Amino acid sequence: MAALTLKKSLSLEDLMTAAESLSWSGASGVGDDLVQSFLQQSHASVDLNHQTSLSGAEVAKLLSEFWAWSSIREGKEPLIRTRRVSSDEGAVDFTLLEIVGEDMPFLVRSVLGACRDLNTQAGMLLHPILEHTRSEAGERQPSAEKRESYIQVYLELLDSSTANALEKEVRETLNDVRVSVDDFDAMQARMREAAETVAANEYVDTDAAKESAAFLNWLADGHFTFLGTRFYRFAQAEDGSLAPEEPEIIEGTSLGILRDRNRFILQRGNEPTIITGQISDFLNEPTPLIVAKATLRSRVNRRVRADYIGVKQYDENGQVTGEIRFAGLFTAEAYNAQVRDVPLVRQKVEQTMAAAGKRPNSHDANALTHILETFPRDELFQISVEDLHSISTSILKLQDRAETRMYLRKDRFDRYMTALIYVPRESFNSDLRARIGRRLELAFDAKLTAYYPSFGDTPLARIHYLLDLKPNHPEPDLEDLERDIAEMARSWNDQIRSLVRASKAELPAGIDEERITSAFNAAYKEATDPAVALADISILSELSDNRPVALRALRHERDPLSVIRARIYSYHKPIQLSASVPVFENMGLFVKSEQGFPVRLNQDDEFPCWIHSLEMRSDDMSAIDLQQIRSALEEGFEAVWTNKTENDGFNRLILAIGANWRQAALFRTLSRYRKQSGLDPAQTTQINALAKNPTITALLLQCFMTRFDPDLDLSLEDRKAKCKELSSATIAALNDVESLDEDRVLRRLSELIHATKRTSYFQLNEHGEPHAHIAIKIASRELEALPEPRPYREIFVCAPHVEGVHLRFGPVARGGLRWSDRRDDFRTEVLGLVKAQQVKNAVIVPVGSKGGFYPKQLPVDGDREAVRDEAIRAYKTFISALLTLTDNLMDGTLRNPKRTIVWDESDPYLVVAADKGTATFSDIANEISLSYDFWLGDAFASGGSAGYDHKKMGITARGAWVAVQRHFRELGTDIQSERFSVIGVGDMSGDVFGNGMLLSHTIDLKAAFNHLHIFIDPNPNDPEANWQERKRMFDLPRSSWSDYNQELISKGGGIFPRSAKRIELTDEIRNFLKIEDEALTPNELIQAILKAEADLLWFGGIGTYVKATTETDLQVGDKSNDATRVSADDLHVKVVGEGANLGVTQAGRIQFAQRGGRINSDAIDNSAGVDSSDHEVNIKILLKAAIDAGEFEADQRNDLLASMTDEVAEKVLVHNYDQTGALSVAEASAAADLDSHERMMERLEARGILNRSVEGLPKSEEIRGLHEAKSGLTRPEIAVLLAYAKLTLFDELVAGTVPDDPFLEEMYKSYFPAPLRRFDNALTSHRLKREIIATQLANDIINLGGPTFVHRVKERAGVATDAIARAFIASKEIFSLSPLLKKIDELDNQVPADIQIGLRLDLINALRRQVFWLARTRSIAENISEIVDHYQPHVARLIQSGKDTLSPYETDVLEEREARYRDDGAPNSIAHNVAMILSMTSATDIVDLADRTRQDVLPAACLFSAVGSVFGFDRLRQTALTLKLDQHWDRLAVRGLVETLLVQQNNLSEQISANHESLELNDFSAAQKVVEKFVEENAESYERLELLLADLEQSGAWTFAKLVLFANGMRSFIDETDLGAR
Questions:
Q1: Active-site entry in 644, 850, 1180, 1372
Q2: Is 850 annotated as catalytic?
Q3: How far apart are CA 1261 and CA 1522, in angstroms?
Q4: Helix, strand, coil % (nearest 5) of the chain?
Q5: How much is the pLDDT for 3?
Q6: 262-301 pLDDT, tens digit each
Q7: Is-above-0.85 flag for pTM?
Q8: Distance CA 1615, CA 1544 (A)
């Protein structure tokens, strides 16, 4: 673990002070002697080189937890645990290893050795040792008799598997330490006994026995750390020789770690070693001891191979019959002792000196003595005198010569080999050492286990190698081997000069041998082969500022196939290992080692270039095909380092399938999109799925290339056929994928590739290079695993510095692009917003769209400007990417993007707008649009400098204010003249909040907050003065609540920073908030404000602050405001106005509305912004066409746009007024319309258009509950249906012929401000003319008729949408409804709002009947003008005639209705006109009757009314309409029955008229006489009818069944009088 630095020095006093406030289990506190000792020793154990970045309090807390955990220890077993720790500030995470047990030698080094064995670097280690015992219960009891060790090791952060492995290894290590320590005395005594036995052995040479005994005693005297010992008995053959069998372990003789019968000192195959003939000969040699290296590795003290001491055992015949084996470690004293003091060794040295024959004290004698003293000590213990003499005297001859020599020694049983290699000191480096080691391994097929370089005063360096030999290993030619090693040791400079001379022509100009040798330092030369240096210098000379880095991949001859090496070349600055290692790790490589070297190509360079040499292997040890992936790896690293691509696990595909970095980036793009869906596994899982299934990944890549590579000479059909084959192969291969997660990832990627319609992958920029981004255009509804609602199309963009998505719900769509701060789920955020955008866009031409981009490289510590600049860079990339996949119109001709295979229909309409974070970016977007020569020009992004500034217009706030005014008007309050209280979200610098709080001078703003401050005015004083102050702040270039004149704030109020820890509350604030707390945190205060009593809660700032009680904060998806959010049932306001998006969740809105609160939805309230932008776009399209056609001068355009601002605003606000009015009317009849609402939802669901769960609409079982409660949908729910009604109607209208009807030309022109209506050619050719007409018409039909209007007419009449639309337009014109509706609207604040709603409801019912009649009874395919011209004059005469043509019953109904309207407050004229229209719902029937009977319309009306009166039709129809029926089908049947009665009345009227053509029918009285005469002529039939009617009336109240019986009776009457329906 890297050393961690303290925040401040940690004194003992600081530690003790911090500990005083903590609990110390089982102790009285820090005054307790044990605790005090524990803390003092812990502090003393702090290693100043490994202090942790923890405060004194944090260290004390960790020690307190350690103390508490170790308070109970039962038995002898140590306590061992690891735990993950985070500092209080979350600055660093690490792992603690904690151990408590009996104190004994070797603990610390043994524990640290266990850590190192698991590649776990230890940092600080605390090791207090306390004097205490333990009770039977394991509790501490102070006592000097025993000591316990407390060890706390600070480690780097470990994963759980490593931590578990470490605990296991530590436990086993401590067990070895314990048994070694416990048996130390016994093992030492055994060695001393063995020494006595050896000394007394009469079967070996006396001197040898004496020296051997001395050696054993010397070991026992502190020169040997005992690990274990064991007695063995050798089996004997019949002749007394040793039998070739395994030695027998003598029971009860095993001590130390050898108590474990499964552990052995020597190991080769099965152990104990079988006594072979060779071993038998060795054992019978006249030496009583064996000194060798064991195969057993020590866990105690040092992690090395144990030293093995064998003492032979003899029988009475001097035959070796067994052995005492000791395993242990020579101590440091043993290694440091002079050779003359070490038994056995001193004897070898003396014999060697004697054999050398050097004169005592001569130069050679002294030199040889030095050689022997510095000879590897382990070698001296094991080497024979002969070998020692041979090697040491040869070394002596080398002392003054810089030559290379090799000395090899094998052990007696050919298991090990040591090599002493001497090389010229100036040639030695780590690379040479490694190469010699590899050469030795190769020569003997051996394994290098250790090496020890050594340097003396001579010009030679010595390397001591230890190698394991295999059975039957090769025996190389030693002279050839030594010659090879000598060649390796040649001087670097000598070799480089030879190479330069041999390859001068191939080197870059100016590169010569002296420049090369001076460019590299000694470390480089030590580590690098001269041939590599030539390649390095060539690549370095190619680097520049434009290409600052390069990489060369290679492999050494003897490297395993899993190993790969890289040399990184950096221009004028080093590459940090911490930065480069993750790049390779993400490619699937493990970096084993790295060296960096500065290189000065020119000695006067200010900064050197750098070469970094890395050795790596595949992380799973699999083989790497270097030839296949070399260039991809080299280019991939450069791309990552220069930010052309990202550094993540998708780059593993370079190794996995040989993909290049752009192909890896393609899979990154596809997978990132899938991850953004929220339904797919984590990125790591996706990466693993691709990397582990290279065959399938390659098929997916091939499929993508086949679909989209423009350089393939294939038609779309050919591409489709080939992709089908690849898909079949993919599906077949998927059957072999075992992991369900991987299968799902790969299938969904395959599905995504086929749902992709366009990509920028193959496009080139102006420099002929691929774009920095990859964009894909997706037909979202072709993807099954995608959250609802699924867009029509979406474009996903992925680049190293930005990701983004643009969702569209139709070919013509618009919406804002926001700067998102949600890296992992910005699509979810955008999808949530686009649902609201859909509702907003119901009032405009385009359907909803929304985009969001996430800048991935914002400067961490950058200032505001730096952050903004990077965001703009990301925004530009995002915008450009959208345009690269969008068709263009050039001179009216459609142009597809270059180098793009298009799988979808033409798609030139792309319009964007500002949103959160991009309010000032529209000009940037339009500049890009113009640079692309995009056909929309600066109409591409609304709200730019040459457009309608929403904030200056205040249009969004004004639109939302229209909604707020309606709410209050329906509550009986005129907020423009009466004071009302407001709490709000936002500040006066904001568009929506600022403009909103200036829309009435009677506002009492009691509280508001933004991200910086909280404003509270508990009892506002002068509303006008406060308005003026808000206006002053709004006019400032920038302002916050801190700029507010606090002298205007009422007593007790103030402005409070949200950065404060706590805010003290005055009595006035507490009274206002109705709380008792004297202080609150800022977040708590905001919650209290949101819960406060007020008239209006105005949302003008970003954030979701209200949810339903059933929702979690996680479901809300606005983490930044989790701490301030409240539930809807906590609100105590009357009205909520959502000028800003998503102030309240949809579930929260519904809950608030169910409690009686007044609320629409954000999409309804703030739709004026998008409406204004849509007008701007369509106006700009019109003006561009006018300019192109020569109808207008381009330089006058901007002035004309500005001059029309007010008229555009008026048109927009009319939509807000009408739409909120439609909601009020629908809400008033919500309970009665519940069946219709449910059936509309069911039909939309059946068509796959609506998902109730997604939209928060009630399911069938919830609808049943509403029926039982006699309730209906809430206003927010109706708002959703209103939007769906408009959107579906728009789609159907655009698909039909109604928008082409000439009658609608004036309505189309009225969409545009008056100054534009002179551009006839531009108006006619406007690309969106039909869409504009369809939008206006859909708004008109649904706003007036309600959300279920079209569905109801279809249900009753069974006609198509076109017929309904034509009938609606005609009906409005025929009855001149528009002027009358306008007069009703003008009654705002003059009459109660429910009167206006009632008048509208009655007119809607009349209109619905008229539309139904026209759509069903006439051929509506003709032009609308023909229908209007036919009916309007006659209907006007009938209405003008008033009561003259009505029956007495109808007259009574008219007068009663008119009187009721007047009594409710409606003006006389309106009351009369509405009542008159309702009495003339059969007017068009009468016109048709007049046509058929060739009469004037007034006599026909009189006759029609007379028939209705005499036969009771008018009364029975009214009775039928007032029946209270619960079932939808019953109500539908009643409406059908009413129509039947009308038809019968019409037929009777026609027949009577035909039989009395000569009669004058100028008034109702005359007509009644004619009808009565007809009755007399058919008296018998009429009498039966009359009797039926009397029976029905006398039997009680009218029911549907009775009405049906009457209709049947009337049908019989008609049949009997031979007057069948015609």
A1: 850
A2: yes
A3: 28
A4: 50, 15, 30
A5: 36
A6: 888 876 443 445 555 556 566 667 789 999 888 888 999 9
A7: no
A8: 11
